[in-house]
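dumping this here before i forget
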Amino acid sequence: MSSPEYPDQRPRGSLRIAIGSDRAGFAYKRALEAELRRSPQVGAVLDVGVDERARTAYPLVALAAGQLIAEDKADRALLVCHTGLGMAIAANKVAGVRAVTAHDPYSVRHAVLHNDAQVLALGAGIVGLAVARQLVAGWLNLRFDPRSSAAAKVALLRHIDPSQPLAAPHGELAPADGRIEAP
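structure:
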């Protein structure tokens, strides 16, 4: 459901979604993957693991999903573990990826509309499957608007260089290029 304020930037049915879980999130992954495959907004679902027998550590699953986004082979990723926290932390290690853990519609909405988060990590031990389905359905309908007031802050996130200080003296935001002028 797009609004004039946040229009869809891709045609319906064209979202490429990576999906992954650890063992704790496997049952949710399987159910949510089926929902994604039925969604008219989704053109492709890319499973990065695990299967029901695997014991792959969640950071490897999250990194695989993040790499697909970084390489423009996926537009978004849906990751599920026990809390969603570890998956988000691991996915955020991939340059250019913005991953969040969200367990309510308000957080999901703001993650996309205000932070241009491409990765949604859910906790199977935190929310019920019915809530997870609702969150994913809402997430699919949201698009970041690069003309929004949040765009400058997202641009700053894209330009943060780990070797540079993040704040100017007195707590002011550093310029988008990350450089801070000496007084």
